[in-house]
Amino acid sequence: MANIKWILTDIEGTTTDVAFVYDVLFPYFRTHLGAWKNVDSIEMNEVLSETQRLVSEEIGATGLSREMLFNQLLAWSLEDRKVTPLKQLQGMVWKTGFESGALKGHVYPDVLPSLQRWKSLGINVAIFSSGSIAAQKQLFGYSVDGDLTSFFSDYFDTTTGMKREVETYLKIADKLNCPAVQMLFLSDIPQELEAAKAAGMDTLQLLRPGTMQSWPTCVSNFNEIK
Hints:
Blueprint lengths: L5 E4 L8 H15 L9 H18 L6 H14 L4 H17 L10 H10 L3 E5 L4 H9 L12 E3 L9 H10 L7 E5 L2 H9 L3 E5 L11 E2 L7
Parallel strand pairs: 1-2, 1-4, 2-3, 4-5, 5-6
Helix pairs in contact: 1-4, 2-3, 2-4, 4-6, 7-8
């Protein structure tokens, strides 16, 4: 991996404990979702419009009321659906939590020193997560180790493509103006690693606590990445 110019990293199970997402962020979203039902903004209207479009596409239902659209978003949340309008709304709700101090983004202790080391070596770092770009910036901007956003040169979410599709990683490489062979992708999910590898990237599986090895190349933390 001597020729690596970019590191592309996942969040859940990679930089951040999955439990933080499922035990802290998701419950916070569901608890505070009701307060957003009367919010009238361009961003909210985009979320609801895209929700209606997806529901129409999936089951043919049209003309859903605002209440029904919010119920659909809640249902998707309970199913952990990786759909863009849900991710956008989650980011909006979490933003208030991070800004108020009610939420602090979890990152493993080895993340910050590794980010510092990579920066000193001239290696760029980008994030690719199913969570919205806004939510990604909030997690790292209000992390337990302070504001880490200066260490990341770019962010990608499902608006670029799905995480298990080869084409998505090719798009990311093109956006970063870097050959895929000069990129390293970090994730705990083998299907994501498989897609990145098929696109030409180097890959490493993170074996955080609770993750079983299911990929030939793996490390237990960022300090082991040489």
